[in-house]
């Protein structure tokens, strides 16, 4: 019995995935994947499962996400699911890379931090007066 654990990150969101042999049940934060709304977010998380095909029906996945917004959590979960499936079946790794590199490689960009002694956005400057 092979249990695989993987993780994925996006901005401040972190997802941890546990893969076990099973019948194709996927749970995200104790909720079935197919009951997650909005549909666009659910479809993003389903992409690695659709590419994996029959392999995805042989395993159960449990994903826990924390931090970030719902979109970042979905991207992190997508990465964690794809990494776990690629570890389970080595042939899937090349398929994932050909479809979308971000399925196996994390996007490391973060929100730009606010600068000291300034208010407003991260890059906004203080107003200059000529008179």
Structural features, described:
The chain is α+β, with helices and mostly antiparallel strands and 131 residues long. The protein has a single domain, classed as Ribosomal Protein S5, domain 2 (2-Layer Sandwich). 31% of the residues lie in helices and 22% in strands. It is built from three helices and five strands. A five-stranded mixed beta sheet has the order 1-2-5-3-4. Helix 1 runs parallel beside helix 2. The longest helix has 19 residues. The termini are far apart.
Question: In a few lines, what is going on in this structure?
Answer:
This protein has 131 residues and is of the alpha+beta class.
Uncertain runs: none
Number of domains: 1
Q: What is the β-strand count?
A: 5
Q: Note the overall shape.
A: elongated
Share of residues in strands:
15-25%
CATH class: Alpha Beta
Encode the helix/strand succession as letters: EEEEHEHH
What is the tally of helical segments?
Answer: 3
CATH fold topology: Ribosomal Protein S5, domain 2
User: What is the name of the CATH architecture?
Assistant: 2-Layer Sandwich
Helix percent band: 25-40%
Mean pLDDT: 92
- Rg measurement, Å: 19 Å
Q: Report the sheet with the most strands, covering strand number, pairing sense and barrel closure.
A: 5 strands, mixed
Report the end-to-end length measured between terminal Cα atoms. 76 Å
> How would you write the strand order of the largest sheet?
1-2-5-3-4
Structural class: alpha+beta
What key phrases describe this protein's structure?
5 strands; Ribosomal Protein S5, domain 2; five-stranded mixed beta sheet; alpha+beta; 131 residues; 3 helices; elongated
């Amino acid at each position: 019995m092979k249990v695989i654990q993987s993780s994925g990150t996006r901005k401040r969101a972190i997802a941890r995935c546990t893969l076990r042999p099973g019948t194709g049940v996927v749970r995200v934060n104790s909720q079935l994947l197919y009951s997650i709304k909005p549909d666009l977010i659910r479809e993003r998380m389903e992409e690695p499962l659709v590419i994996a095909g029959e392999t995805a029906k042989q395993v159960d996945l449990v994903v826990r996400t924390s931090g970030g917004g719902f979109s970042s959590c979905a991207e992190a979960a997508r990465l964690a699911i794809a990494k776990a499936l690629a570890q389970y079946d080595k042939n899937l790794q090349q398929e994932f890379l050909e479809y979308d590199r971000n399925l196996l490689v994390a996007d490391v960009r973060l929100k730009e931090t606010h600068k000291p002694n300034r208010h407003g956005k991260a890059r906004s400057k203080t107003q200059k007066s000529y008179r």
